[in-house]
Amino acid sequence: MPIHDLSPFKTLYMQTAKENLHVLLAALQKLPNNITDKIALEEAHRSAHTLKSKSLVMGYQDIGNLARSVEDTMYDVINQKTSLSQDTLQSLRVIAKQIEEKLKFI
Amino acid sequence: MKILIAEDDVFFQKFYSAKLQEKGFEVVVAGDGEEAIQKAKEAKPDLILLDIIMPKKDGFEVLQFLKQDPNANAIPVIVFSSLGQEQDVEKAKALGAIDYINKGFYDIDLLFSKIMFVKKQ
């Protein structure tokens, strides 16, 4: 296998990316009821962070960039640089759905 | 040379394990911060590749613990970082990490060069 051949990891990527997205969507669903839910905030941040990193490694730049925008927002919320509004949450859900759609076409 | 990969995501565990094993490194994997500390003590790796965001104990806590443990404080640690979190890299270095690699930017050659640098020390 050539050192830069990433194809053997595609199935594992898809499987784990879907798991990351599932965790992200579940966390975003919990947050409207309690926008300071620390566990949900951290789950959303961690899943977006992991999804971003593996997508960029595999060359799925658009998914990586979408996940990065969720990660950055959650990072700022967790570190109290910004507060989480219902509008922001709605935007994050839209982004998560965009990621879901893009994963279908890989 | 034995390398401990402390990383909670299965994709990255298998990805980096495969790439490192292809190059002849022995690999040990830990899936969370507590397991990382345990395996660092038991397996006595020559190098630890440490993720920051992990369950149970994050990478910072693992670093703090290892650097205070006389049986583990000499093991070099390279941190897996992400773009936009440079402050985390600085924090990890202040806690004793010797270097970092951007996990979201696939450059296995850069990782190998950092590992070989550690090996020569």
Annotation keywords:
heterodimer, A: 106 residues, mainly alpha, Four Helix Bundle (Hemerythrin (Met), subunit A), elongated, B: 121 residues, alpha/beta, Rossmann fold, five-stranded parallel β-sheet, 5 strands, globular
Descriptive overview:
Helix content of chain A is 75%, strand content 0%. Chain A has 106 residues and is mainly alpha-helical. Chain A has a single domain, classed as Up-down Bundle (Four Helix Bundle (Hemerythrin (Met), subunit A)), CATH 1.20.120.160. The mean pLDDT of chain A is 92. Chain B is of the alpha/beta class and 121 residues long. Chain B has a single domain, classed as Rossmann fold (3-Layer(aba) Sandwich), CATH 3.40.50. In chain B, strands 2-1-3-4-5 form a 5-stranded parallel beta sheet, with helices on both faces. The mean pLDDT of chain B is 89. At the A-B interface, helix 1, helix 2 and helix 3 of A face helix 1 of B.
CATH class of chain B reads Alpha Beta
Detail the poorly predicted runs of chain A: none
Strand % of chain A is: under 5%
Q: How large, in whole angstroms, is the Cα Rg of chain B?
A: 13 Å
CATH architecture descriptor text of chain B: 3-Layer(aba) Sandwich
User: Widest sheet of chain B: strand order?
Assistant: 2-1-3-4-5
Low-confidence parts of chain B, pLDDT < 50 over ≥5 residues? Answer: none
Q: What is the H-and-E element order of chain A?
A: HHHH
